[in-house]
């Protein structure tokens, strides 16, 4: 009577086990691979071993870490300082390597050229420090004076050079001012006006386009005053230096591209630019640039040699510089012959310290050194366009895009001419080639970019959230303005009637009778007053 009707008779005499004992027995039982397969069962396939996570950083985690670093508020600022500083250091090193042998042979001082370049580098760093402290309003106000100054210097340079051509002289002098090809010597100070014209065109052009705003869709707005001033600068600069004129043209293209101008404008600029380049190539036969009247047109020779290059043994003098530069690249190989051990700089390669310094880098540092230089310029291009995309002020966006286009296009033209992908134009390599005016103006542009990088919305909020020490702000850079923070308009003054408002009488039923002073004490309890 005590049995359950559903219980099997075979299990009636077995002792019962607790659930814990059953689990213990299952745990102590050997696994299937130890016990072997049951009789009559099909053999099982071996299960794949579980994947063990790799110790370290794989590609996905590395990209995630890089993305996290780039998402930091001041990433643009530190990227800009890093790539510009490395390029400047490499430039000083390569100038010493390219000029030490020749300087020692001529003057007995191997560090003469690098000392001069280091002085200009110190001046450029001071200019960089000053430019990164300036707000955008100061840059907008500096555009017009710098533009007028550069145009005046270019006019003086071209007039003196024209006078020197008429009198069959290499240079012309008026008082303390002397002109030689691309440079003005003012009281012993060497100035290249075309370098100042680049920076002036950036500031003035960005200010004009930002002020016009949406009206740029009309040709009339672009025609006045942007195109006439650009044409004047192109003529004054391109008469002596076609390479710098091409750099100015690339700068204007970057400026208009950042402004969102329609494609038909770029097509018209391309046609006008090609016609202007053809005209400037033609006037080299009349003595423009370094040409001589009646001599072979050296600009046309460079273009024809690039389009249809003869063999080096049949080319002669026009191909000498290109041939020696390619020999330097071939001699360097993958890893180079060693820093300072190159042989083409021993008066074999013309302008080894300036226009063709990239060939010296390829010979002494090899392909690895060239890749490092190209990578640093790529980082500079990415950082400049990143700053232009992140800032919220139209002037900052346009100026950042223009400066980035200027520096990167100049590097591309120089390196392309050395390796044979573009015609030779005589442009220096930014940060690296020997030249004082170019280095100072380049560092001024980098300082302006640094000022804009600190003015990014996220960077400005981060700097205001945790401001640096006061002495850091005084010695390095002040805090940038917070984004979207505008001065509130003043409250309009109240309208004055014949009777002041304080003396107006109330015309409602609660007006106190004349001569009776109201009780100003607050009556009732605190809870009643709160209600």
TrEMBL record:
It comes from the Bacteria. Keywords: Cell cycle, Cell division, Cell shape, Glycosyltransferase, Membrane, Peptidoglycan synthesis, Transferase, Transmembrane, Transmembrane helix. Its EC number is 2.4.99.28. GO terms for biological process: cell division. It is found in: Membrane. Residues 1-54, 482-531 are annotated as: Disordered. The keyword Protein biosynthesis does not apply. Residues 501-522 have a biased composition (Basic and acidic residues). The chain crosses the membrane at residues 77-98, 118-134, 146-166, 181-206, 218-236, 242-259, 266-288, 356-385, 397-424, 436-453. Peptidoglycan polymerase that is essential for cell division. This is Probable peptidoglycan glycosyltransferase FtsW. It comes from Micromonospora luteifusca. The lineage of its organism: Bacteria, Bacillati, Actinomycetota, Actinomycetes, Micromonosporales.
């Amino acid at each position: 009577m005590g049995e359950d009707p559903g219980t099997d008779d075979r299990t009636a005499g077995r002792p019962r086990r607790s659930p814990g004992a059953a689990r213990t027995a299952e745990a102590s039982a050997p696994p299937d691979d130890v016990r072997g397969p049951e009789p009559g069962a099909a053999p099982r396939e071996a299960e794949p071993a579980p994947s063990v996570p790799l110790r370290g950083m794989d590609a996905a985690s590395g990209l995630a870490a890089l993305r996290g670093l780039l998402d930091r508020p001041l990433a643009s600022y530190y990227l800009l300082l890093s790539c510009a500083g490395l390029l400047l250091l490499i430039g000083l090193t390569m100038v010493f390597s390219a000029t030490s042998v020749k300087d020692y042979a001529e003057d007995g001082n191997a560090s003469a050229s690098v000392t001069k370049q280091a002085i200009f580098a110190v001046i450029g760093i001071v200019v960089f420090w000053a430019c990164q402290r300036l707000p955008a309003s100061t840059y907008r106000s500096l555009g017009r004076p710098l533009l007028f100054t550069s145009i005046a210097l270019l006019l003086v340079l071209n007039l003196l050079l024209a006078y020197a051509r008429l009198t069959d002289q290499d240079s012309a002098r008026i008082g303390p001012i002397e002109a030689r090809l691309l440079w003005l010597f003012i009281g012993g100070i060497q100035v290249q006006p075309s370098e100042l014209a680049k920076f002036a065109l950036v500031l003035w052009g960005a200010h004009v386009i930002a002020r016009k705003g949406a009206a740029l869709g009309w040709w009339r707005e672009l025609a006045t005053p942007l195109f006439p001033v650009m044409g004047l600068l192109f003529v004054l600069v391109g008469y002596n230096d076609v390479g710098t004129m091409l750099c100015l043209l690339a700068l204007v293209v970057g400026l208009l591209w950042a402004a969102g101008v329609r494609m038909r404008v770029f097509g018209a600029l391309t046609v006008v630019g090609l016609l202007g380049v053809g005209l400037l190539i033609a006037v080299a036969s009349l003595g423009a640039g370094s040409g001589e009247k009646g001599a072979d047109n050296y600009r046309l020779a460079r273009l024809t040699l690039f389009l249809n290059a003869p063999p080096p043994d049949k080319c002669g003098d026009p191909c000498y510089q290109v041939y020696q530069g390619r020999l330097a690249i071939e001699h360097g190989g993958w890893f180079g012959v060693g820093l300072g051990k190159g042989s083409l700089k021993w008066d074999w390669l013309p302008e080894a310290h300036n226009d063709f310094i990239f060939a010296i880098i390829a010979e002494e540092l090899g392909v690895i050194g060239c890749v490092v230089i190209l990578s640093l310029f790529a980082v500079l291009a990415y950082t400049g366009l990143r700053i232009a995309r992140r800032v919220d002020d139209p002037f900052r966006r346009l100026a950042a895009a223009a400066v980035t286009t200027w520096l990167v296009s100049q590097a591309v033209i120089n390196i392309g001419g050395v390796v044979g992908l573009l015609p030779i134009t005589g442009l220096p390599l930014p940060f690296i080639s020997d030249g004082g005016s170019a280095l100072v103006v380049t560092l001024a542009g980098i300082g302006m970019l640094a000022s804009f990088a600190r003015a990014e919305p996220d960077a400005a909020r981060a700097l205001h959230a945790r401001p640096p020490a006061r002495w850091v702000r005084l010695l390095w850079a002040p805090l940038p303005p917070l984004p979207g923070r505008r001065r509130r308009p003043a409250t309009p003054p109240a309208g004055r009637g014949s009777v002041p408002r304080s003396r107006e009488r109330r015309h409602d039923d609660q007006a106190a009778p004349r001569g009776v002073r109201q009780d100003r004490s607050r009556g009732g309890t605190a809870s009643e007053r709160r209600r």
